[in-house]
Fold this protein.
Amino acid sequence: MNENAFQAPAVEVQRRTPEVLQRIEERCAGLLPRVEAKMKTLSGRDRRPEARLVDQAAQAGTVAKRVMWLRKAADYLQEGAAHLAACRKGCSHCCHISVMVSRAEAQVIARETGAHLNTDAGQFTMQGFEEQSETIRAATLQAYGAACTFLREGSCSIYSSRPLQCRLLLNMDDDDLLCQLIENGDSNVPYLNTTEHHIASVTVLGAHQDYDDLRNWFPSGLA
Ligand code: SF4
């Protein structure tokens, strides 16, 4: 780890006690039909506006504009599903897990917010994702339970500039129980499937980008 790597306060990561595991098991019973019922109500939503916004992103002349259009597309997707999701203001579980961000997006965030960008970050590449899988898993575990460096008193201090991943992470269950952190970082959270948007982002911003956890791009947050 380089000297700029993040050091953030941790939140409670629950031990894997029989009680905790039982609570999760009980919640997972019936999870699939519960979430599928919600997804059915979303299936009729018009996705063409989102596709048009992604097209705008692809045609934009600067990285900043591409990111701006991708954010609009992500927000459209998020707004359509938010009323069915467990996510609520004040909940910050997903600010204590890994947030992968491309260099292009990190540079835009740095320009918009004035946060100091650690240009030495960017240890992952799209091409190397398979052979780097062990390192990525280690980085994911390192971030697990550690607060994002932009989290201030339970709120995002760069909300309008927050990464695409933060905009798109929606727990489609009825409450946050499955988002609660437990040892070893196993996740059963039924996140909204946003794969298409992530693929579009990689295509629009360029598959040559390097990636890293947000905390490594911005070890000091807005300090
Ligand atoms: S950028 Fe904001 S929303 Fe995203 S993880 Fe950090 S504090 Fe949370």
Observations:
- The beta strands are 100-102, 124-125, 151-152, 155-156, 210-213.
- The longest helix spans residues 63-81.
- The chain has a mean pLDDT of 90.
